[in-house]
Amino acid sequence: MKKRVLVKFSGEALASENGFGIDTSILKFIAKEIKSLVEHDIEVGIVIGGGNIIRGVSAAQNGIIKRTSGDYMGMLATVINAVAMQEALEYMGLQVRVQSAIKMEQICETFIVRRAIRHLEKGRIVIFAAGTGNPFFTTDTAATLRAIEIESSMIIKATKVNGIYDKDPNKYNDAKKLDIISYDDALKDNIKVMDDTSIALAKDNSLPIVVCNMFKERNLLNIIENNDLSGCSIVK
Question: What pLDDT digit, counting tens, does each position of 65-110 carry?
């Protein structure tokens, strides 16, 4: 039986150093990493955030834009990123489908779980866009939900650091890496893995969450194919 995983990238990860927009060199690197998974017969689902374009919470901070509208704007941002990722993957010769939780037939398919699974079985990469289609839910929650729906063996959160720390390693030199932690520990306020809803959902469905450095070459493949957890952390 083929392995099936869902990889979650933040929107900020696609941005250049200025933190905004889409850096095509980063797109190309990610596409190469995903291609290595497909070449090893791994079925891949992807969720990308929209923070490099707009974040719903930030857009609604001063009250001019309602939180619900801000969240829908954020969902549209994830569609932009999904289409960009689709182009990069197709440039690599891969077959890709974007499925959106919000109907927009001219751009992509509407999310249907059975169709998504069929695409995966045929070796196509499926990018899930527009979050859950509902305001007040993050793309972390959407990623966990989609991973459960497509019966993924794990969810990989690809970040800029090589795992989970007890505090921000970019700010504190004494930050300690946590290789394996429980769902309950991940829900504690001082450990920011994913939002609480997504972790609770993963816990209820016994879905492992792997946090790794997306910029380490072949890291995703080593985690999935070789069960190499040296450069990551796992919540289970």
Answer: 999 999 999 999 999 999 999 999 999 999 999 999 999 999 999 9
Domain range summary for the chain, segments of one domain joined by +: 4-235
How far is the C-alpha of 165 from the C-alpha of 174, rounded, in Å? 10
Query: Among candidates 34, 36, 15, which has minimal Cα distance to 81?
Result: 15
3-state secondary structure of 135: coil
The answer to whether 163 touches 232, Cβ cutoff 8 Å, is: yes
CA gap 97, 92 in Å, rounded: 14
In order of 61, 65, 221, the CA distances from 10 in angstroms are 21, 23, 19
Of 45, 52, 64, 54, nearest to 15 by C-alpha is 52
DSSP codes of every residue in 53-91: T--HHHHTTTSSS-HHHHHHHHHHHHHHHHHHHHHHHHH
Q: Is the pLDDT of residue 231 over 70?
A: yes
pLDDT of residue 189: 67
Second-level CATH architecture of 4-235: 3-Layer(aba) Sandwich (3.40)
